[in-house]
Amino acid sequence: MNNSDSMSVAERVEKNLAKRYRAEKRFRIFGMISVSIGIIALIGLFTQIISNGAGAFFQTYVKLDITFDADELGISDPTDPDQLMIGNYDGIVRDALRERFPSVTKRREKRDLYSLVSIGASYRLQSDLRQNPQLLGTTQTLWVLADDDVDVYFKSREDEPFIGRLNDLQVEWIESLAKSNELKTKFNTIFFTSGDSAEPEQAGILGALLGSLLTLLVTLLLSFPIGVAAAIYLEEYAKSNKFTDFIEVNINNLAAVPSVIFGLLGLAIFLNFFNMPRSIPLVGGFVLTLMTLPTIIISSRAAIKAVPPSIRQAALGMGASKMQMILHHVLPLALPGMLTGAIIGMAQALGETAPLLMIGMVAFIVELPGSVADPATVLPVQIFLWADSPERAFTERTSAAIMVLLAFLITMNTFAIWLRKKLERRW
Q1: Are 247 and 409 a contacting pair, CB within 8 Å?
Q2: What is the pTM (predicted TM-score) of this model?
Q3: What is the mean pLDDT of residues 284-302?
C-alpha cells in the first residue's frame, strides 16, 4: 500500500468520524430541545392551574351587625336545642342587610340585596347561637359568608372585574361595602372542612378526600397481599411451561389495558352479578384492585429477581426450607422494591376517574362518608363534576382541587423514590 492509498483511507476514517460526531451532537441537541419543551409545557400547565385555582383558597365575607332577636328567630327557650335548630336565621341576616342599606324598599331590590349573602350564612349563625345561647337578645358585629357572585367580583375587581349575574345596583352595593372596609377575604377553611354543595361558596373537598382515602385503603389491603403472593408463586414456585408463560403474557398485557375496561368489568361483576350497591368505596376499591394488580405483580417480581441467588443458596445450605428461605431472606430484601411498586400503583389509582364513573361514584353526595359502605365520591370525580358546573366560582375550585390532587400524587411518588433509596441494598 502506497502513501496515497494510506492517506485516502485515513481521510475517509476522519470524515466518517467527523460525520458520526456531528450526528451524535445533533442527537444530543434534539434531546435537550425535547426535554426543554417538556419542561416548558409542564411549567405552563402548573402556572395555568395555580393562577386559576389560587383564588379558591380565599373566600369573601361581609361585615354585618347581626341582632339575635328572640321574636324574629322564633325562640322562646334558648335551652331547647330543637328551637335553636329551626330558628329563622335567614330573617336576622336580612334585617341586618336592610339596616345597612335603608334606602332599599322595593321588593325586587330587596331580593337582589339578600342574594349578596350566601344562604349558608344562617348555618354559621345557628352554630354560634347553639354554642353560646347568651348571644340571644344581643347585637354582634360578624363577618358572614358572601355569595359566590360577590366573591368572584370582589377578588377580580382590581384587574378585570367579572360581573357575571350581578346587576348594576348590586355592583354599587358591593363597591359601597368595599369602600367602607365591610368586605374582606379570609382563608377558605370551608374548602377543606366541608363536602360537596350546589353553592360554590359552601363546596369543599373533604368528602371527596375521605372517599379517596377509603377507596385506596380497600385497594391497598387487597392488591398488595394478592400481588406479592402472585409474584412469589410465579418467581419461586411456578414451573416454566406454556401455562405460566400464558399467565405472564396476560399480566403484562393487563398493565396496558385502558382503565375504563376495568370499570366495565366491575360494573358487570360487582354491581350486576353480586348486586353490590353503587357509589361506595368498597366497590371502588375492588375495581381499582383489579387495575393495580398487574403493576404490583410486575414490580414485585422485579424486586424478587434482584435478590442475588447466593442469598437463596446460603439459606438452603444452612438447612432452611424453601418457605423459610422466601419469608426470612428473600422477601425482606425484596420488600423495598415491592413497597415502591405498591405506592406507585396507589398513586395511579388515586388519579383514576373513568373506572369509578362506571360504578356510579359520580353521584352528587353532600354527607361525609364514615365507612367503606357509605356513599362517597373521590377527588378526581369531584374535579370532573365541578368542571362541568356553569358557575364561575366552580372554575376556581376545580383548579384548586387539581392542585390538591397533584400535591398528593407528587408526595406519593416522592415518598416511593425516597423509600427505595432509603431501604435498598447494593450488592
Answers
A1: no
A2: 0.85
A3: 91
